């Protein structure tokens, strides 16, 4: 076999192997992106401070239902299961006179699993900030919540 023929046969074999190898279809790629979204890992040290969030029945009073003299207050309404294993939390943050940046909710479940979601880029100085998040898990019983935030806007 001549050298040129050898290389041509080798290249043809590689092209054939690549063409016949399994590759994800468009549906597979879209499904994996939906199921496993790319997210930045939560790093508590990236935030200036945090405060606990009450998980309790809806409150219609100002300041998320907490006393007016509270300068930081957070509440999550009791979760509602919208579909099997998909829970929706409606939340409220009050920070009278102060703007909070990079507001991130962290839910911790029994066993130590955590879910962290950025819920607001910033809050308003003179009004409550409201948000809604969804969590996918079989049960949300026993969850505890914290809000992490920065005092000034950080560069992304």
Structural summary, described in words:
With 156 residues, this protein is an alpha+beta fold. It contains two helices and eight strands. Strands 1, 2, 3, 4, 5, 6, 7 and 8 form an eight-stranded mixed β-sheet that branches. The longest helix has 18 residues. The protein is globular. 17% of the residues are buried.
Radius of gyration: 24 Å
Overall mean pLDDT stands at 78
CATH topology grouping of the largest domain: Immunoglobulin-like
Total individual domains? 2
* First-residue to last-residue Cα separation: 60 Å
Strand proportion, as a percent range, falls in 35-45%
Number of helices in the DSSP assignment: 2
How many beta strands in the DSSP annotation? 8
User: Which residue ranges are poorly predicted, with pLDDT under 50 across at least 5 consecutive positions?
Assistant: 3-38
Structural class: alpha+beta
Helix coverage percent: 10-25%
Secondary-structure arrangement, i.e. CATH architecture of the largest domain:
Sandwich
